[in-house]
Predict the 3D structure of the following.
Amino acid sequence: MPTVLVVVEAQPDGKLKKATLNAITAARALGDVHAVVLAKDATALAAEVKDYVKVVHAGSAAHVEHYLAETWAPAVAEVAKAISAEWVGAAATQQGRDLMPRVAAKLNAAMASDIMAVNGTTLTRPMWAGAVIAEVTLSTPVKAFTVRTTEFALAEKAGGAGEVKAFAPAPVTSPTKFVEFKEVKSARPELTEARIVVSGGRGTKGDFKEVEALADELGAAVGASRAVCDAGWQPNDLQVGQTGKVVAPSLYVAAGISGAIQHLAGMKGSKTIVAINKDGEAPIFQVADYGLVADLFKALPELRAAIKAAK
Amino acid sequence: MKILVTAKRVEDPESKIKVDAAGKGIVKEGLKYKINPFDEIAVEEALRLVAKHPGDVVAVSIGGKEVHEQLRHALAMGATKAVWVNHEGPLDQMGVAGLLKKIVEKEKPDLVILGKQSIDDDQNQVGQYLAEWLGWGQATFASKADSLDSENEKNKVPGVIVGDGAKTIDVIREVDGGLNRLQLTLPAVVTTDLRLNQPRYASLPGIMKAKSKPLEELNPAGLGVDVAPKITVTKLSMPPARKAGIKVADVPTLVTKLKTEAKVI
């Protein structure tokens, strides 16, 4: 069995980011899974991961405390070489997308981004904003990948805990310095992990009160279209689409979103899609299970009241 | 400040892409082509930076002669010089990064700005490979603190912040959960996200001037780069279409359907 190394990602609070478990599921289809954890003190996170993999390589050092591709790529490549990994991967989060090509470059590995399926050594991935699905093979001795998390289930714990091997990442001088991270704090569930997502588009004209109120009634996350984020009405982090967040909740409510192909690429994997739009010809209705031609400022409060009453 | 930017030729993002009958390529008939939208943002950012820190903007494109269209577009926006790498046939991200590395070594820019991804392959890799192979710092997914509706945007203020003496740049990046700020020592690689700027239109005088700006021709063999692809696309297909659903008359019907049919609330 080939060895697969998965880079573990932490949430801002230092705990395991669930996307890593989706990546581990994809990695299991490729071989024996090892994980690498990098932190100032990697002990606690390594303990969280060890039940899912064969070996956790726990790298503790001050210089890897704040994630930077320049300091992490050498440490990941060091582990990949030491265990003769044939595959190296991570979840296709912003961190994974930033890091993995740099790791691949270090290992002279070709890379497939955003993989959606694994069949032997053939990987499936989206092209042209998901309008085309490609099957690809990589011919370099070491191969890299990132995983589209909505396409793989969360990994179950493997039978028996894996081994934890501590290591000290070799010091590196980075030409890049971490200055700050401005967290957009929200009491709502994380967009990519929520069971229900309520998204608003240009039709909101920037007034998200009704979108947020419905989301809170449903315990849902709030999403947005590109137009909304471009205008600065909502944080960029909430953009659903090919270049933003890809989501696949049980229920996706699109309010005042016309449905550009780039937006559809980020949500068409949702189980049930509801579209509310004044324009009955909007492309969003072509992917919606239930479409309602209506003004969102009238329909959303009504929907919220009806859901509350039905509880 | 000398800046190198990329100008990849891609299908118009509004086009409807269809896979051919053999599942080996896409149907080219009727397609329009444009500069990769993320690369266009890179050109715009470079022009804003050299407006404050004078220097040249060099635009690079790889492909057959048709990529002159995208190079002329970058020149019409205001780039100083174009570099055309004449190459027909398949090319993957390692090939592109290998070629760009050689061109960077020739041109010696202070900064390379590229689109974070091209909208055909959607790989999001070249900037990172290039930064590693050059041993430079990288700031992917560059954005800025102001929105595209802000006064600063109207005044074409660059999102990339140049430090005293132009030895460093600060870049604000779109990351999960918020915004991240990095400080990079120059030379460095930056890749653009959607909200870095709104690219300008090429003016008529700009289009006229572009015709007489220099366009240098290079090729992979001359640059000493083996571009044999390491990624093979074995099959292309269209994803299963989502079945169009139904329109409901009113909110009560919608709630009933969600409860009894879809069972999601």
